[in-house]
Amino acid sequence: MRMRVRIGEIGREVKMPEVCPYQGCGGHHFKWHQQRCEKGVRDLKHKVLEVKRCKCLKCGRTFRVYPWGVSRAQQTAALKGLSVMLYILGISSRGVEDVLRCISDLIGMRVDVGKSTVHRNVQEAGRKSRRLQKIRREGLRGKVKVVGVDGTHVKCRGKDGVVGMVVDLLSGEELWLEVLGGEDSESLEKWLRGLMEEVGFEVIVSDDADAYKNVADELGVEHGICRMHVTRNMLERIGRLGEEVLNRSPPVPEGVGITEEQVLEDLESLLWIVQGHPAQGRKQLEILHERYCWAKAPKKGKRAGFWYRLRRVTLDLWGDWERYTLYRTWRGEGGERLPSTNSATERMIGWSIKERYRTMRGYKSEESILKVSTLIGWLCRCPLNYDLAQLSVA
Description:
Among the domains are: 111 residues, 2-Layer Sandwich (Nucleotidyltransferase, domain 5), CATH 3.30.420; 97 residues. Helices cover 46% and strands 16% of the residues. It is built from 13 helices and ten strands. A five-stranded mixed β-sheet has the order 7-6-5-8-9, sandwiched between helices. Strands 2-3-4 form a three-stranded antiparallel β-sheet, with no helix packed on it. Strands 1-10 form a two-stranded parallel ribbon. Helix 2 packs across helix 3 and helix 8 runs antiparallel to helix 9. The longest helix has 25 residues.
């Protein structure tokens, strides 16, 4: 995965608070109540840190004030950040516990934490990254024009689940990750309609599944189909048809003047159209489809024959030609071009979900899927030397 993060040092300076932490007070005026107060911590460099006590002039109550990266918890934000980084790099919670224990022995500092604490640290960082990602989406309202959409499967408590990913296809930034009820049109529409209301978009790019076509039509946006998916799937279908012609030459129905040579020539034309996307491709596909539109659909429970499968190939290509070639005609307000593939979304799925998931037997909850995957996706978009401890600061 592509991450360039660091573990920054905690602060040493204690600043006067801006508002009283006690609920219902809201005071803004304070005075120092105790200037020197020590707190034992688990950290990479410090055993004890100096904190202060402050008194609210409105409610009269006192409370501790900590430097940046320190809280009531024993761990500092730096130590939490280290445990999170080790986990997302592929080490299990128990493994992180062992690594931190070894570090404790090497540096003579108490930095070891249990596997349950590691899990809580990761969940806390994931929760904050999802909150930051939502704020980021709100800031992108009206700026996102093209989204790439795709899904993948993961195990959760032994059951197969679908995780949907949405990426700003022009920048490659992850926008939203959600566990879906299924890959049907209804689930996808409900999910994507929520994103459309948040950021707005003009184009969806996806694979050639019918559910995405239906969703794009329901939302009233343009739909581009990943050229890589179309090419791979269609070449496989056309190849099987060509192999069948050469092996046993399916009989031509009476009254249809088509020869074996004509069929092979038409299959070769289909290969050229699928790979080259010629300007007159739609017209050529229309002519080819009219040549085989007489082929009848199989009866219920029967396997589709050669001629009907050839008819379906020509019909599928002809019917969705505008979706396949949208990348050639769409232009953004700033002259942006639509990518011909959905590779940016698939790449982000690999980084955010699959790479960490390969080292696991599965997730224990859907909440963990969202938090861990969003955390990794958020760190992938962060600038060089992003301080991972920021995700552990309240």
